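Re: weekly structure request thread

Next one in the queue (71 aa):
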Amino acid sequence: MKIKLKKGRVVIMATESILLDALRIPARYADEVLEAMESKKKVKKLDVDFEIVDDPEEIRKMFGYSSKDEE
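Done, posted below.
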């Protein structure tokens, strides 16, 4: 999962609950944030954009691995 923050770019692979805890998202915003992650919408109150990347090749590229590394 790729997360774009206002001041930069962060790449995180995590479960939803770990992600919410790591970003210190208040419980009252949890539903809105999880919905935004799924629909790629902006969370207005938090000024955070979410984009889900679930293509294995794209994830490998983000972390600097190629298909050759598997062999």
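The first strand starts at residue 2 and ends at 5. The chain has one domain: 2-70.
Next request, please.
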